[in-house]
Amino acid sequence: xxxxxxxxxxxxxxxxxxxxxxxxxxxDFYGCAPCGEVLDTRSHAxxxxxxxxxxxxxxxxxxxxxxxEGALAAEGQMxxxxxxxxxxxxxxGGCVAAGxxxxxxxxxxxxxxxxxxxxxxxxxxxxxxxGGRVMKNVAGYDVSRLLAGSLGTLGLILEVSLKVLPRPAAxxxxxxxxxxxxxxxxxxxxxGTPLPVSASAWRDGELCVxxxxxxxxxxxxxxxxxxxxxxxxxxxxxxxxxxxxxxAWFAGEAPLWRLxxxxxxxxxxxxxxxxxxxxxxxxxxRAGAHASxxxxxxxxxxxxxxxxxxxxxxEGVFAPLAPALARLHRELKAAFDPxxxxxxxxLYPEF
Amino acid sequence: MGExxxxxxxxxxxxxxxxxxxxxxxxxxxxxEEDTRPYECDGLTxxxxxxxxxxxxxxxxxxxxxxRACHALQVPVVPRGAGTGLSGGALPPGDGVLLxxxxxxRIVRLDPVARIAVVQPGVRNLAISDAAAPFGxxxxxxxxxxxxxxxxxxxxxxxxxxxxxxxxxxxxxVLRVRGFAADGEPLDFGSEALDAPGFxxxxxxxxxxxxxxxxxxxxxxxxxxxxxARVVMASFDDLHKAGDAVAAVIAAGIIPAGLxxxxxxxxxxxxxxxxxxYDLEAAAILLCEADGLPEEVEDxxxxxxxxxTRAGATRLTESRDEAERLRFWSGRxxxxxxxxxxxxxxxxxxxxxxRKRLGEVLGFIGEMEKKYGLRCPNVFHAGDGNLHPLILxxxxxxxxxxxxxAFAAEVLEKCIAVGGTITGEHGVGVEKINEMCVQFGSAxxxxxxxxxxxYDPTGMLNPGKAVPTLARCAExxxxxxHGGELRHAQLPRF
Lengths: 351, 494
Description:
Number of strands of chain B: 18
Oligomer: heterodimer
Helix content of chain B: 25-40%
Largest interface: A-B, 85 and 96 residues
Distance between the termini of chain A: 28 Å
Number of domains of chain B: 5
Radius of gyration of chain B: 23 Å
Strand content of chain A: 15-25%
Structural class of chain B: alpha+beta
Number of helices of chain B: 18
CATH topology of the largest domain in chain B: Uridine Diphospho-n-acetylenolpyruvylglucosamine Reductase, domain 3
């Protein structure tokens, strides 16, 4: 099955053509505009190996994310980083290439934290295997994690092994009325105590906190935090709205900025009311503000800003890199994809 | 004392020492053998080489100057932390500079609100948790050597410990690494935010065995200390049953804070050493720890006991207080030194396997004990499949050392054969460089070399470690055919 994909890549490299790696197309909006001939990865699909007691699942890139998460749910397990699908047709390959994580990220870790191994086709059309299907593996450089979030610029991710976790026994979502500064202060204080907070979201003076774990631990923590408990289906709807950005806050055409900052950073001095996730470490902004003002504010806070959806991409989508890191990016790109076949310009215009 | 250096080497040594003396004080440049000899090996003492020069900078600017000077002279540089590594990653080059970061011992900043610590690479792993303790916080990865090993080395090796299944490895607990490339160019990977733009170079630098850059400042995550922790010790009369019990715990939806297994030869050795209260009649014991809120721990321990009983545990003991919990762990943490008491030398392996293959691999190790006539107690991070078989031998007996190496090589190749890896947490270094030829094909190795060149085009940083040359692999596999299939078959044979 992978032979056909390799042939397409070999051929493109020989012709000097560019390829746009694409699964379900659910993340076409993310990063710089896709260009090049479409190479559809969906034919390379299916779960290769899943043994719940090993806490590892291995699946091919074209596997629909729905199917994968369904198989895990049937065994009472999950992808703990709660990847956003952004549409019905999201695939595992696109999920790993985009590297995005959902509401549980601050508590459980990011997508890259769960990547154990990958198979990949590089720009020379070679099929390579890195990492493996075991939890601990330090043989060779950690190329698998490097591929997470590389937006397909280093190669075609053929297959991925991920660590999975059991679904929590109990979950409860609490709603509290708090202004932004108090919400940030509370979130950081709670994160320093052993409370089982698994997600948080603040918008419009309202903070929602999700607790996950053993029933009695969730109960005890809920008592400590106070606030109003959401009904289970309302809570599920709310967190899905955050994860998939279907919440009303995300509606509309204004550019959406993603600011990744230290969780304890003070409220950012930017126009517009933010939506805050990840215990304060992720701040969304619908901004008419200038790109440079948003990037400066994020950088001053010790983080970086991404033009996540919409807006004017000509000034770049991702924060510019320091010269030394930009050089490393170019060198690594050349190591994986010397002819520049894969997703040109999708991450940074230079490659 | 060793042999005198040839004239050319002596001149080179003088030139390099002189270049470093231009910006380092006299006490920070060692070149006389009596001063450099202590740096001849790290925790893997079977490999030794006296470095040509040892540099002991104290500031980041000095580290940069050392790298620039060595780059200009094209002298190999090997960074070293506490020297506790077990794969020879800090083995010095005989013709190069050993760059010790031992003087970088400062905790630069500890922010209890943001829950981070900014530390220098020479800070000991445990010292971070000690400094964070007054705030109810700690640094989660806890390699057994945590009282001695330094965070810089932990970053280089992506160190683990007994709590990785729940809390992750170094790579999951580091936010930022600042340092220098081989030519002295400043580099800054990650940030105090949860991610950084572009490729995840932070993930790539962790576990890169000092091959890509020299770290001079590291920002780690601190976690709230769980208010309660308890451990259950379970005995099994059969190794396979113990292995199945581990799977049963996971199947019950439990992620224990720690899940360790020791076989009888291992428990007997440590019991004599520390008196941890282990069941010496059991074929294997499991240590299963729950941590978190008191309610959570109580529920989880009850569930664990039920699962282990159903899995055929012959005896269950639960730690009644913190002192007893620490005593149960003391045996596991002292497993390596305990071997030193029952044998002149021991060789610690570090393969990882899918847990379900445990019985098969332990059976294989048993066969190897007979084949090579050497004893091999086993300790095992059962939760994450990381084996540490400990081959007992006498280094003064050249035959035994040779047999030990062959024994270890067979076990590591078995780990690969069952779908595992040759190193879970100790690194490749010089020790497992041949086995890298078995685990990876030449295309992967070529890519590793290309990654190395992206950071260090002239190959001056820790040369000859972690990734074998293709020529070495061709040489290695010449006498080494697997299942009739020759790896690197496309390479010219010599």
